Amino acid sequence: MTSSANGGNPRESTRILVVRNDKVGDFMLAWPALAYLKATSPALHISVLVPTYTAPLARLCPWIDEVILDPGGDAGRNAQRSLLQQLRAGRFAALLTLYSTPRIGWLGWRSGIPLRLAPATKWAQLFYNHRVTQRRSRSTRPEYVYNIELADALLLALGVASVARPDPPYWPLPAGTSEVQRSRLAQELGIATSRPWIYLHAGSGGSAVNLTPGQYAQLARLIDARAGGSRPIWIMTAGPSEEATAGELRDRLESDGLEAVVLPPRRGLGDFAMTLAAADLFIAGSTGPLHIAGCLDRPTAGFYPARRSATPLRWQTCNSESHRLAFSPPPGAAESDMAAIDLDVAATAISELIYRLEEATSEF
Q1: Angle at Cα 116 formed by Cα 110 and Cα 120, nearest 5°?
Q2: What are the b/e assignments for 298-320, b being 16+ CB within 10 Å?
């Protein structure tokens, strides 16, 4: 079918369809699994089914060979029929659904994909002939690790010998990309390249529990006070409809004597993502931009609720361990009481991370 009976690498014609068709952050946490599939066998042809709004990122992913647009569950019958025809024409050997819904399970079954694998959750699993029990709601491992485990199970079902899992960055960029982005933004924003750039994303994307703009302003003041002679430049980023919040936060920081700017709207999500390569540190709640920065292996400081389904472990960024910090309400506080987070402690940890990274850079 797709590989030798005794394992090894599949033939070049082995086509795999991977589905993660929800939000930006969820999709970025699928990149480690995609990188693992390609590391196992570069001959695998990997297609992804994604919504229109994450397609620009998918087209930039080095592990993806083909992007198929999902019209979504609200699309009409003709759009669903067109997608089904496209999947049938793809002649996929396997379907890997990282987050399953009945519609996707039905499409995979109707399209005749012979090997269909998904988490063993809810009744959508009835459409799959390979299922993996994970119990993700217990949040015992990072989301991206759950995804890698599903990829591993798919390779086993295909008879493909696994390899060592790749390390970050899961979005490797060509050498010099960060410097090019930094030079471009320095000219556009009129800021110095010699000082640390801390990106601050105060938006929530409509779903993530986050600090308030007032808390972020306090955090920035505390970090700046610890910076000594290497005071950072603060770059506010924003999602759609969040520009006003970013502007207000910049004004707060400027009134406190900090240097702050707002990143102007970019030419689409892909262009925005590339600007994050210039960050010395990215601070946000558990939002899509935080996970883009993590995938680029930029240093991150994430703020999370203590809710079991949204813990810092479950939604850990996929950057190197030495590049990530996470903060959440302490034991005894309400799970979404972000005001209970000790910002003084967070500022100290973030400042120490910046210092360590600067020291490591100066050694080269």
Answers
A1: 115
A2: bbbbbbbbbeeebbbebbbbbbe
E strand or H helix that includes residue 186 = helix 177-189
Q: What is the pLDDT along the chain (364 residues), one digit of tens a residue?
A: 333 333 344 444 599 999 999 999 999 999 999 999 999 999 899 999 999 999 999 999 999 999 999 999 999 999 999 999 999 999 999 999 998 899 999 999 999 999 999 999 878 889 999 999 998 888 899 999 999 999 999 999 999 998 999 999 999 999 999 999 999 999 999 999 999 999 999 987 766 789 999 999 999 999 999 998 889 999 999 988 899 999 999 999 999 999 999 999 999 999 999 999 999 999 999 999 999 999 999 999 999 998 887 889 999 999 999 999 999 999 999 988 999 999 999 999 999 999 999 888 766 5
Residue ranges of domains in the chain, CATH in brackets:
15-158 (3.40.50.2000), 177-362 (3.40.50.2000)
Other residues' Cβ atoms within 10 Å of the Cβ of residue 143: 23
Sequence letter at residue 122 = K
Q: Which residue type does 198 have? A: I
**b/e for 245-267, b at 16 or more Cβ within 10 A?**
bbeebbebbeeeebbbbbbeeee
β-strand pairing of 94-97 with 115-119: parallel
Q: Within 10 Å of residue 342's Cβ, how many Cβ atoms? A: 11
pTM: 0.94
